[in-house]
From TrEMBL, chains A, B:
<feature type="transmembrane region" description="Helical">
    <location>
        <begin position="323"/>
        <end position="345"/>
    </location>
</feature>
<keyword id="KW-0406">Ion transport</keyword>
<dbReference type="GO" id="GO:0005886">
    <property type="term" value="C:plasma membrane"/>
</dbReference>
<feature type="transmembrane region" description="Helical">
    <location>
        <begin position="377"/>
        <end position="401"/>
    </location>
</feature>
<keyword id="KW-1133">Transmembrane helix</keyword>
<keyword id="KW-1003">Cell membrane</keyword>
<keyword id="KW-0813">Transport</keyword>
<feature type="transmembrane region" description="Helical">
    <location>
        <begin position="47"/>
        <end position="70"/>
    </location>
</feature>
<dbReference type="Pfam" id="PF02386">
    <property type="entry name" value="TrkH"/>
</dbReference>
<feature type="transmembrane region" description="Helical">
    <location>
        <begin position="198"/>
        <end position="218"/>
    </location>
</feature>
<keyword id="KW-0812">Transmembrane</keyword>
<dbReference type="InterPro" id="IPR003445">
    <property type="entry name" value="Cat_transpt"/>
</dbReference>
<feature type="transmembrane region" description="Helical">
    <location>
        <begin position="98"/>
        <end position="123"/>
    </location>
</feature>
<feature type="transmembrane region" description="Helical">
    <location>
        <begin position="271"/>
        <end position="299"/>
    </location>
</feature>
<protein>
    <submittedName>
        <fullName>TrkH family potassium uptake protein</fullName>
    </submittedName>
</protein>
<dbReference type="GO" id="GO:0008324">
    <property type="term" value="F:monoatomic cation transmembrane transporter activity"/>
</dbReference>
<keyword id="KW-0472">Membrane</keyword>
């Protein structure tokens, strides 16, 4: 990042650690911060962050969507993203149509959300024109791309009672988190759910279930907490509970003080953040589909059935292996990361686990310890953000695309398990 | 439990909750307690506990070994536990030979350990004859069966500097935790490791690796903690670190104060307790073999290879499914149990997670909160102990023994994962 990106040049340039952490957090659309965005960075610095977020968000959506097309073709299945599914490679035409589709959809949704926010900032908060526009645009970009960077030091806590700010932001987050393949299919067949693919049904079913469960649990757990929901009326409690549930998947804005939430609410959010949103979108985590696929595999195993059938379709056996590998590796990364940070710092398990899951799921929520961690811990979080952002999609696609060669087989043995 | 089992009848009979919790803890060889064993129970009550432990230990070893034989036969593999592998059912002869083998081995090892302990109690601690014999026998039974019940209120903390007590107990725990199939094979081929089955190699490799890693980590983490290892000399620190590492898999005695250990050491022990010991023995947890099988599956997936080869043998594909189902269900039980207990009580995540993993792994270590939990939490822990004790083996065998019928197949679809 350039020197001009700092708000107060007299205070010195950003260190390489601050610059690396912030840039990684922006490109990975995580939103964890070591320096306070509005105070530390200049307008130019903020613009750089917004551009990095947009590049990161577009990049991940485009790349993941193209990989999904490629997978569908390789496996000889009907591609739902583009019309011509006859070729087995991804051509320049596909790239063009996906990039255009993703860009158009991003701009349309970000524009709409920015319009509502700018109007609200101008009318109700009487901000001056350029400030309102910049804040509305930045927040809309940050929300749709699930980045969670905010232009206030206290994130969105200043708007905790304003549904006209919280609800547009929540909608942008949810839509961005569904993923491009789902949005593309919904645009075509929104009125005919029978036409939806298993993928779209899984993402929508999972997202709705997690949002409802998350809202109920978080609202109930924080109902009387004087530092979070306690001060609000019933409507406000529900709005903020819903907003908190949405933000764990995996946007990372907060309208109530995360650090003041109870252990129970933090752990609940750990689970939601770990699962995350839909694939090929801007959300992080192991993804809703991975979670539901594992759920259906286990139900099938316990029932003693042989094929995993969901919504009247059989789940491809290759997907079992992908989901299991992604989930096990994710658990390994989170457990190892937590273990190392616990040993290297003096924060509690609550705080460390939350921080690691937040980095892995590229969520960006924090109990407030990020800035106080030592350099080594920051580097580890940078690594976890990258792994969390790129790991699941890379492993999922690599497993799906690979041709397996069977050279010879060794004699078989079966150890006892369990 | 009978009225005479209480040490002080004037104080009233045990409540159903105390009796149920203690009996479950004994039969499942867990060792979590809600009342102080030496103070609350009479000599008769202690004898009942010892008998329940022995029944639980023998039962689980016999049942698991018979299931292993049955599995080996069904799958047409050479059975390593009994000579005649030609019949496909488990006959009365097998049951006889397994029960006798398990009983003989249990008595031999328990006798040897009891002998060392009784001698030590008589000679060094100048206890009177019957007290020394009862304490030595009880401790040996409790150790070999990985039960962790102790006849001192502070478990083995009174013997924290005495290797003549700690090392025999640790050996009994390790041997009991290897599992009967491994012991049976070692007895036959101890000098020719080339002859060992994949199962035996996995258990021994995993146990040694976890013991070494556990000893190093726990010793290092608690080195300067004045309430645990800080007061001891280097030799004592190493002895107690080793003892603590052994006890997490999954015996549950403690010679240092678990409640005073650091967050880091508690989390390290959570991991060790979750993995546990070898199958068809007295240890709990998901089992060393399950853990290593998953490890090798992931390594194979990441390398892009098609068959999981371990020690020059191919891992049976059916085992993949068993290991994955056992591990995922175990994670689900621990996460759900932790979530519910967190919400229902006011203890920290550290303490609750440790308690739940300890119950699931039938370990019996505790940060000291067991007795203070409400009735509902005790019932949940009872359920988790049963699930932890019987779940992995039941699910593993059920999956292995089931014949799958393929009636018809639905059209295939593949959602995006990761
Ligand atoms: K985020
Ligand atoms: K135990």
């Amino acid at each position: 990042m350039l020197p001009v990106s700092v708000a107060d040049p007299a205070a010195g340039l950003p260190t390489w650690e601050e610059a690396l952490f912030t840039a990684t957090s922006a490109v990975c659309v995580t939103g964890l911060i070591v320096v306070d965005t509005p105070v530390y960075w200049s307008g130019f610095g903020e613009a750089v962050i917004a551009v990095l977020i947009q590049i990161g968000g577009l990049g991940i959506m485009t790349a993941a969507s193209l990989l999904a097309i490629l997978m569908a073709r390789r496996l000889g299945l009907r591609s739902r993203l583009v019309a011509s599914a006859s070729v087995r490679a991804v051509g320049i035409g596909d790239v063009r149509s996906v990039v255009l589709g993703v860009a158009k959809m991003s701009i349309a949704i970000e524009g709409l959300v920015a319009l509502i926010l700018v109007t609200r900032f101008l009318v109700t908060y009487e901000m001056n024109g350029p400030a309102a526009v910049w804040k509305g645009v930045f927040t809309a970009i940050s929300a749709f791309n699930n980045a969670g960077f905010a232009l206030d030091s206290d994130s969105l806590m200043g708007y905790a009672t304003d549904p006209w700010v919280l609800i547009p932001v929540a909608c942008a987050v949810i839509i961005g988190g569904l993923g491009f393949p789902v949005l593309f299919e919904l645009r075509k067949h929104i009125r005919v759910p029978e036409q939806w693919s298993m993928h779209t049904k899984l993402v929508i079913l999972g997202s709705v279930a997690l949002l409802v469960l998350g809202t109920i649990t978080l609202t109930a757990l924080e109902w009387d907490n004087p530092d979070t929901l306690g001060a609000h009326e019933v409507g406000g409690k529900l709005l903020l509970g819903f907003f908190s549930a949405v933000m764990t998947r995996t946007a990372g804005f907060n309208a109530i003080d995360t650090g003041a939430m109870s252990t129970q609410a933090l752990f609940t959010q750990d689970l939601l953040m770990f699962i995350g949103g839909g694939p090929a979108g801007t959300a992080g985590g192991v993804k809703v589909t991975t979670f539901l696929v594992l759920f259906f595999i286990i139900v099938t195993e316990l029932r003693g059935e042989t094929a995993v059938n969901i919504f009247g379709r059989r789940l491809s056996r290759a997907v079992h292996r992908e989901a299991i590998t992604v989930a096990l590796l994710a658990v390994a990364v989170v457990v190892l990361g937590t273990w190392i940070l616990l040993i290297a710092t003096s924060f509690s398990l609550d705080q460390i686990l939350f921080e690691v899951v937040s980095a892995f799921g590229t969520v960006g929520l924090s109990t407030g310890i990020t800035a106080d961690l030592p350099t080594g811990a920051h580097l580890l979080l940078v690594a976890i953000m990258f792994v969390g952002r790129l790991g699941p999609i890379t492993i999922g696609s690599a497993l799906a695309l690979r041709t397996r060669k069977l050279m010879f087989e060794l004699p078989k043995e079966r150890p006892i398990v369990g």
